[in-house]
């Protein structure tokens, strides 16, 4: 396990404010920040706040944050980028009054999946994106509970990829996300845990 320095990497879109302290990084999102391409809505949004570093093959990245979302589409997690039309954002998003684990997988056009997580609000959420072979495997957990599978998505094993913590605030101006850790860990050994 290797911690990543909060001062490393580059923002895809600068946030309204960043504060780095001994207990992590607090990021205040710009109102209407988001990442989406075309599907169903017809628009392209590429104003997410993602702090990206190189994401090597056969490794995994973990980001942890306190979950205290209030407004529609408040979101935080990990952003994985190949280029402007090929990327994945994954984490927790507040939609229609409830927090859900989700992923937006984009290859020219976006697709979106969500699964409600009752009981996670006010707790520490960790998102892990594991890059191995031709896939990105996404898992999440709350506190020290068991990992949950969120999504398996195709990812070119030869692509130059960057990734890191992400947040967006499509519907308000005052979302601040407290990220507590950002690290590289070993890639998952298999898709399914052994019995």
UniProtKB/TrEMBL annotation:
InterPro entries: ConA-like_dom_sf, DUF1349
Source organism, top-level taxon: Bacteria
PANTHER family assigned: REGULATION OF ENOLASE PROTEIN 1
UniProt protein name: DUF1349 domain-containing protein
Biological source species: Okibacterium fritillariae
